[in-house]
């Protein structure tokens, strides 16, 4: 179906509507954002002598809501200037503008009568054949389109974005019986490729898939909290990173989304699910209703399950006691079982050890301490088992009611609620047959189709064949390839059979067509000796073996890399072994040059946090294929260092290419110096381009991170066809002493203005010294090797300074930089 989307209308400028409008603007579309006309003037409007007929007043709701949305942190828009793509209006004056919109998306309040009335008016102006959809989270689609025209119904469906729409990946598409298949297919494809979403086509059932299963999980957690007498902090400890969920866990997530919204969805499900065997789970507890009556609805008011209060310049946290409806000081529950999850090699190991209640015998003294102080690991295991056994049973019984395919349930929970694995994937990790037996013994039997499946000798919901992940189709009793992923590359599907080399912290995997992938497996994907060895080995294989032609450096973790392993540098710095530090740096710098001058194309595919050494690898690649949500920065100043894995040199080289005026106050290098000195992290693709971390018209973006490695492979093969290696030559324009004097003056001004500490100033002056080429008397072209030598010298001097050691210690022990 050939269809081009140039302009989108969003009807309703509330929390979701404005953020959806921003995300369409992120991808370059023109957006029309409309809302109702205010019924009365504000005091400010009265003072200005305005009337209800003034256009500014009539557009006030859309204007004000958009401006509020643009102030949200994290931002829903890539760059504030992108908001220029959004024009505002109202439902009375501007509906005629819908005639040139390719897609009209409604996001007004969840009220059927309001939606139907609005669509009745919309139909008078909409152009036949244009797409139209609703962002409803649960109102039946058929009831919304009743009495609409045939063309309207054929081009209408539900498009349920999850909040916040820029960051949460799930887009549920809910067609009616009247929706044309090509419309559903087009929106699914468009949402996937252009909006970066995991698009799941759902049945028109209450709350569809994501909220039906996800809200059940939250409400079941609430029930078990009361049953097992667990605190809010304990629940968040047991339902966060330890089981592959976001660190916001259960209650911090509820505060973020809104306690009122959670209660509204749960109550709606309770009212509509008369035949659901677990209906009572959705009944909203009385204490939550009282919270809503009190206005304690979460982060919007800094008070929900947790309460934030600012006193004397610091933020104090308090936790709700549900039985008393009072707040107390926030506590830090200390489960040895949860602590042990940090030592597991995989999510599968985490789940297995949690179910078995395994706690390391080697951590003897801590184990005794926790036993004496009353840490209740037995209760944690009871919670784990009852939650997951009931959760698995509930999910199995919802099929085929909410979906005919198990993978849709898993994808909805992963993409909509941020879990690393969905219910059927977790069930597989714990063992299908063994877990089903335990579920029955605990009184939580699954659906009958599970028994049929096991009786046929099927041992898992998923399996991998020929690089493809396949799911069990319980209706046809056979495995099928997930259709949305059929042509995509996922390393989990290749790792077992196609790993050609590995060491303790990295794998080299052949993903077909002569393309190798090097993935890091070190903690936080930090770059250490083993990772450097692996990248060098991958380049060796690609250069020396005719079966290989290109290399991609990437992984499928949340974050690409948190940078170099500073613990190694810290160890040498502590004993003042400068030669060891310089040797380690030289090894890293040599790798950067190896990447840059390789005889085969090297593509880096970052996603999430790409910091320090992780970004330096990107700066030396032939091309970067970055996920749209990649956050890049050279952040070494935070630990008292400068970028010395070639990062300072690379930014100076990029500034050389971009210099227009030779006077020292105008080159791009000044901006790059400031970005590094402030440890600036690009929070959007546009910022990454403007900071020089990505190159316009050279480096590429993947809106959907699930397509990242596939796109990187395609790019590497395109380059490999006629690849010409880079030529080594002096390619950095050093500005010399005059520029250094200019920069030193600027740094001094920032120091006197209290923007820098004394030690910040010392670090940044060394950074400036390196970026201008050191002691050179004037401008001249120098080699990367010359500048990298300056990097090493400055880095080594800083690394052995006591103040840098204090900064590194703070980062290693507390996970945050120290200003000294």
Beta-strand residue fraction: 5-15%
Strand adjacency order, main sheet: 3-2-1-4-5-6-7-8
CATH class of the largest domain: Alpha Beta
Span between termini: 60 Å
What is the total number of structural domains? Answer: 3
Major beta sheet summary: 8 strands, mixed
Structural class: alpha/beta
Radius of gyration using CA atoms only = 28 Å
Mean pLDDT: 93
CATH superfamily of the largest domain: 2-enoyl-CoA Hydratase, Chain A, domain 1
Number of helices: 34
Name the shape in a single word.
Answer: globular
Q: Looking at CATH, which topology of the largest domain would you report?
A: 2-enoyl-CoA Hydratase, Chain A, domain 1
Percent of residues in helices = 40-55%
- Flag low-confidence runs: 661-665
The CATH architecture of the largest domain would be Alpha-Beta Complex
Total number of beta strands:
26
Task: Explain the overall architecture.
It catalyses: a (3S)-3-hydroxyacyl-CoA + NAD(+) = a 3-oxoacyl-CoA + NADH + H(+). This is 3-hydroxyacyl-CoA dehydrogenase/enoyl-CoA hydratase family protein. Keywords: Fatty acid metabolism, Lipid degradation, Lipid metabolism, NAD, Oxidoreductase. There is one protein chain. By secondary structure, this protein is α/β, with parallel strands linked by helices. The chain folds into three domains: 195 residues, Rossmann fold (3-Layer(aba) Sandwich); 255 residues, N-(1-d-carboxylethyl)-l-norvaline Dehydrogenase, domain 2 (Orthogonal Bundle), CATH 1.10.1040; 314 residues, 2-enoyl-CoA Hydratase, Chain A, domain 1 (Alpha-Beta Complex), CATH 3.90.226. It is 44% helix and 15% strand. It has 34 helices and 26 strands. Strands 3-2-1-4-5-6-7-8 form an eight-stranded mixed sheet. A seven-stranded mixed sheet has the order 15-16-17-18-19-21-24, with helices on both faces. The longest helix is centred in the middle third of the chain and has 21 residues. The radius of gyration is 28 Å and the shape is globular. The termini are far apart. About 1% of the residues have low confidence.
């Amino acid at each position: 179906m050939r269809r081009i989307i140039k302009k989108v209308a969003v009807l309703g400028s509330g929390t979701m509507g404005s953020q959806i409008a921003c995300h369409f603007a992120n991808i370059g579309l023109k957006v029309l954002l409309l809302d109702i006309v205010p019924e009365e003037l504000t005091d400010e409007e009265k003072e200005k002598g305005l009337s209800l007929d003034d256009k500014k007043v009539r557009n006030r709701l859309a204007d004000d809501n958009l401006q509020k949305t643009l102030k949200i942190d994290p931002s829903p828009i890539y760059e504030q200037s992108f908001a220029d793509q959004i024009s505002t209006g109202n439902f009375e004056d501007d509906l005629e503008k819908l005639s040139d919109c390719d897609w009209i998306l409604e996001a007004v309040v969840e009220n059927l009568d309001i939606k139907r009335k609005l669509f009745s008016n919309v139909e008078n102006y909409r152009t036949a054949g244009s797409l139209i959809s609703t962002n409803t989270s649960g109102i039946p689609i058929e009831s919304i389109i009743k009495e609409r025209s045939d063309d309207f119904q054929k081009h209408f469906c539900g498009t349920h974005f999850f909040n916040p729409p820029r960051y949460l990946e799930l887009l549920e598409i809910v067609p009616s019986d009247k929706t044309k298949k090509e419309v559903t297919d087009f929106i699914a494809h468009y949402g996937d490729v252009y909006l970066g979403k995991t698009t799941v086509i759902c049945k028109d059932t209450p709350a569809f898939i994501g909220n039906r299963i996800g809200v059940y999980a939250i409400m079941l957690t609430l029930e078990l909290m009361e049953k097992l007498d667990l605190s809010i902090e304990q629940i968040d400890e047991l339902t966060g990173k330890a089981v592959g969920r976001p660190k916001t866990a259960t209650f911090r997530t509820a505060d973020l989304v809104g306690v009122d919204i959670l209660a509204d969805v749960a109550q709606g499900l309770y009212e509509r699910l008369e035949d659901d065997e677990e209906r009572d789970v959705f009944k909203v507890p009385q204490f939550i209703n009282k919270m809503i009556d009190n206005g304690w609805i979460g982060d919007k008011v800094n008070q929900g399950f947790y309460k934030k209060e600012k006193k004397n310049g610091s933020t104090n946290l308090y936790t709700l006691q549900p039985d008393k409806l009072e707040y107390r000081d926030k506590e830090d529950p200390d489960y040895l079982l949860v602590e042990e999850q940090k030592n597991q090699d995989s999510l599968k190991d985490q789940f297995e050890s949690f179910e078995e209640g395994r706690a390391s015998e080697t951590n003897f003294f801590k184990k005794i301490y926790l036993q004496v102080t009353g840490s209740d690991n037995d209760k944690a295991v009871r919670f784990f088992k009852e939650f997951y056994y009931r959760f698995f049973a509930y999910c199995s019984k919802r099929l085929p009611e909410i979906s005919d395919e198990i993978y849709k349930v898993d994808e909805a929970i992963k993409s909509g609620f941020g879990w690393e694995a969905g219910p059927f994937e977790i069930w597989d990790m714990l063992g299908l047959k063994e877990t089903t037996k335990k579920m029955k013994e605990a009184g939580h039997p699954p659906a009958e189709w599970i028994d049929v499946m096991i009786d046929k000798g099927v041992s898992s919901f998923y399996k991998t064949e020929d690089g493809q992940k396949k799911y069990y189709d319980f209706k046809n009793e056979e495995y099928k390839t997930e259709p949305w992923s059929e042509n995509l590359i996922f390393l989990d599907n290749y790792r077992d059979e196609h790993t050609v080399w590995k060491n303790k912290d990295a794998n080299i995997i052949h993903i077909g067509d002569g393309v190798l992938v090097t993935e890091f497996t070190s903690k936080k994907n930090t770059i250490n000796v083993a990772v450097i060895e692996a990248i060098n080995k991958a380049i060796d294989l690609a250069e020396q073996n005719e079966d290989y032609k290109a290399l991609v450096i990437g992984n499928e973790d949340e974050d690409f890399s948190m940078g170099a392993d500073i613990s190694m540098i810290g160890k040498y710095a502590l004993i003042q072994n400068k030669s060891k530090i310089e040797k380690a740096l030289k090894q890293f710098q040599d790798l950067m040059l190896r990447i840059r001058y390789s005889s085969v194309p090297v593509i880096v595919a970052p996603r999430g946090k790409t910091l320090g050494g992780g970004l330096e690898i990107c700066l030396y690649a032939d091309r970067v294929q970055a996920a749209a949500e990649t956050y890049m920065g050279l952040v070494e100043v935070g630990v008292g260092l400068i970028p010395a894995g070639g990062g300072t040199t690379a930014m100076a080289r990029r500034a050389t290419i971009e210099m227009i005026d030779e006077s020292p106050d105008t080159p791009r290098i000044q901006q790059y110096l400031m970005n590094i000195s402030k440890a600036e992290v690009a929070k959007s693709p546009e910022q990454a381009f403007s900071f020089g971390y990505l190159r316009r018209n050279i480096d590429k973006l993947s809106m959907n991170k699930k397509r990242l490695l596939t796109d990187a492979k395609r790019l590497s093969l395109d380059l490999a066809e006629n690849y010409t290696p880079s030529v080594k030559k002096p390619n950095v324009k050093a500005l010399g002493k005059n520029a250094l004097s200019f920069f030193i003056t600027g740094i001094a001004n920032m120091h006197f203005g209290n923007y820098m500490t004394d030690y910040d100033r010392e670090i940044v002056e060394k950074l400036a010294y390196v970026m201008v080429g050191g002691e050179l008397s004037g401008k001249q072209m120098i080699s990367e090797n010359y500048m990298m030598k300056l990097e090493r010298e400055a880095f080594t001097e800083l690394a052995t300074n006591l103040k840098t050691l204090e900064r590194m210690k703070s980062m290693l022990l507390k996970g945050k930089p120290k200003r000294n």
